[in-house]
Amino acid sequence: MWLRVSCSLAFDIETPTPFILMLRPRSGAEQWIELDEFKISLNVPIIEFTNHYGNLCQRFVAPTGSFSIYTTSDVKTSEFIDVDFDATFVEVQNLPSDILCYLLPSRYCESDRFNDLANSITANQQPGYQQVFAIKEWLKTNISYIPGSSDYPISATEVNYKRSGVCRDLSHLGIALCRSLSIPARMVVGYLHELYPMDMHAWFEAYIGGRWYTFDATQTGQKGGYVSVGYGLDAADVAIFNQFGPVAHSLQQSITVTEIKK
Amino acid sequence: MWLRVSCSLAFDIETPTPFILMLRPRSGAEQWIELDEFKISLNVPIIEFTNHYGNLCQRFVAPTGSFSIYTTSDVKTSEFIDVDFDATFVEVQNLPSDILCYLLPSRYCESDRFNDLANSITANQQPGYQQVFAIKEWLKTNISYIPGSSDYPISATEVNYKRSGVCRDLSHLGIALCRSLSIPARMVVGYLHELYPMDMHAWFEAYIGGRWYTFDATQTGQKGGYVSVGYGLDAADVAIFNQFGPVAHSLQQSITVTEIKK
Amino acid sequence: MWLRVSCSLAFDIETPTPFILMLRPRSGAEQWIELDEFKISLNVPIIEFTNHYGNLCQRFVAPTGSFSIYTTSDVKTSEFIDVDFDATFVEVQNLPSDILCYLLPSRYCESDRFNDLANSITANQQPGYQQVFAIKEWLKTNISYIPGSSDYPISATEVNYKRSGVCRDLSHLGIALCRSLSIPARMVVGYLHELYPMDMHAWFEAYIGGRWYTFDATQTGQKGGYVSVGYGLDAADVAIFNQFGPVAHSLQQSITVTEIKK
Amino acid sequence: MWLRVSCSLAFDIETPTPFILMLRPRSGAEQWIELDEFKISLNVPIIEFTNHYGNLCQRFVAPTGSFSIYTTSDVKTSEFIDVDFDATFVEVQNLPSDILCYLLPSRYCESDRFNDLANSITANQQPGYQQVFAIKEWLKTNISYIPGSSDYPISATEVNYKRSGVCRDLSHLGIALCRSLSIPARMVVGYLHELYPMDMHAWFEAYIGGRWYTFDATQTGQKGGYVSVGYGLDAADVAIFNQFGPVAHSLQQSITVTEIKK
């Protein structure tokens, strides 16, 4: 299916402020970006670079005053996520070296503290896809998904205690549970077709059977329509914008996702 | 200045053929891609990856039959190339590690064979920008630029013997001469505003005074309007498409570069 | 000065267990490894790879039973750490792209929560080295260094609450405070001459004035004798060994550091 | 088998000269470096870095005068090279992205000019290992291996014309032939047990069936005892030392390889 996605951001800055954006989706195994538009209403140098996790990031210093950012892309993505209950656990010794970092605990995914819970959730499952599927189902049943209920990231431990959270929070707990079973897991931020209320979305991927699979504890069935914008260990890595210095005022954010015909 | 650039390619394939494209310009220190469109008239998976030199490449297998590729971008670039006669030679020991590969000889730039010529061309020049400028001027005077005069890359040695060549050939000789003086140099393929006859273009960059500078022995003065699409050691690295297997028939290629207002 | 460092580890494994070691120090700007010995008493394939942070890591699967690891190196390092109170803060927009990851919060360094404390500690300091020096001094005064007082990493928030910790804990808090001021900071694990009691050690580095400087809140003055073995965002990245699966029994660890003449 | 390898170099320099060495073998899938010693008789800063191809390189500036370099390693390697006549050709579309660069022509391997010869040599072979084996056998039969017969690298085209060469030359032609068949191939420089006369050696590897295999047209049978020191596209990438500026005088080079018991 073809989706047209867009993100509008507006800032009002009191002092010159360095920004790093992560808003340009990349073509990859799962999606093809046929059209990509990226407007920043500033006449300053903008440098684009690729970070550790393969994301395209944009750096610039915003001068005092207001400015806006607008990105839109036409993306070919799948109508359904890939599902394979037979995809097997990859032994640590057989993982590609550049996947190993997704086994470690990170800022919001204290995987070192979730081994018992993960074992109990996946007790009767085959190692691999079935384990992660059980984790996702457990999240759906046990952690209430309440969009808009928090403004800043909380960690897997806090999510597990609070028993509710936004998409980012459920992903953190899912990732921590996977990693505690030696299953590589990473955070994805991006767009999702028909998300309600519409916003940037977060989900997680687990590395099973030699590739990454999508898991989203906020959704039902195998519905697809995902557009990935950034990958990382957790929310610390995938902010769509990072600013350094005083917090910007009057931020507005508007997201759209529309199915189109091509 | 804002340029709208485009490239159309048409192929007719007799047998399923793997392709690697290098046709998506990247935003960087010198240019900003505000709009980027990339159409391939095939319904096959296309994987994008970043290669050694930071280029975005696209891989796919074209099935038997005909297909087309169309890319267009709106790019902000400079009206004039940067010129700095005071930019100094960077001693090898002070070069960043990832620049060192641009000192070595490569397929079409046998820099190991040009030390005498380079010394003679730059005899009275200050080390750095002035040396490379002298090399560029020498190329303009001594190697006739004849667009369309060759179909496949020839090496610096061959260009020096032949005394004429296309943009790619002049760049190869320029790069070989720079490297023989321990000045890192790389090939760039891309678009150039008002190039006549219009086509994909090639020029070279030299690393002086801590950054890359543009040199183009086919042009006069400080005229800008360059849009970089790919970087590499020489033409072997920056083909806008590589195909593997039997050569494709009926190739058509159409390039446009238009100044636009934004 | 020349140091001979060594690390002995002994394991007893109940089930085949994948290990990843980070025990081979690398030559770099600050140290030169003249001799390097690395013995593992197993006849299994061992693969070495370089991770995200430039560390040499070794992977293998240990079979059931006991085995030992022994590494020793002769290293040239400085007798005194570099100190430069004039080294200035690097604005975020001027940081190299590959340094930016050291600004983000990580598993044990919740830098997003320490801005007020960092500002209060560094209130009257010039941006840059003087700020980090003030942080280090504050750690020395306010957080008791108690070697051997904890077995597993705790985070900066926990360290700040507990008011005491091992070398790793003080580093976590130091890193979190630096990052909250937009100063890149990273964890280092390695050896330290005359550490008492002798053990593997941890300290932190801050990126100021275009390079990394060493800071160690557990030591006094400008004493050097550091040998770096691994770098990372925090303790999650720099374990000298990671094992996957059931915890190994009967672990023994012995560390030596001796000054030698060359 | 365990080998103790060593390399001694002596230089006499007329003017301060930047050097880049590639003399530290790395542990990897095929070899384990248990002991590694690296002495440079200079009191200057030496920086080690990892280059594009994963090699450990050492940079320094040698002052005027004489100095020596001595490296030795104890390495576990195989007594026999791996041979698998069933290892199959990997279609270009299935190659890992970071392998693709080994398909391109390079300074000394003009693979773009060898398609006809490669097809004729491998006419009746199964795609994959059998093709490369046929290339190696053809090299043994058709290109005389004359150790010490040349001092500087010549390219595949020149080797093919000259019909004789040193180990490096045979490798260049072998690599060019492989690449012309879309088989990734790379140059390896290193040590070989029982090489006569003893010297640094060069051979090539081809990527077949998902891994690299060793091929050496200068040797007979499946004899092993290889210790890899550097990898690259061709001899331009794997010089054990590169110097920049006037050529050094009085170079001496001494190589030893001895089997040891461990």
Short description:
Chains A, B, C, D: Keywords: Hydrolase, Protease. The structure is a homotetramer of 262-residue chains. With 262 residues, chain A is an alpha+beta fold.
Key attributes of the depicted protein:
homotetramer, 262 residues, alpha+beta, Immunoglobulin-like, C8orf32 fold, 2 domains, four-stranded antiparallel sheet, 4 helices, 14 strands, 37% strand, globular
Describe this structure as you would to a colleague.
Chain A folds into two domains: 96 residues, Sandwich (Immunoglobulin-like); 132 residues, C8orf32 fold, CATH 3.10.620.30. Chain A has four helices and 14 strands. In chain A, α2 crosses α4 and α3 packs across α4. The longest helix of chain A is centred in the middle third of the chain and has 14 residues. Chain A starts with a strand and ends with a strand. The model of chain A has no long low-confidence stretch (mean pLDDT 93). Chains in contact: A-B, A-C, B-D, C-D. At the A-C interface, β5 of A face β5 of C. β3 of chain A pairs antiparallel with β3 of chain B, so a sheet runs across the interface.
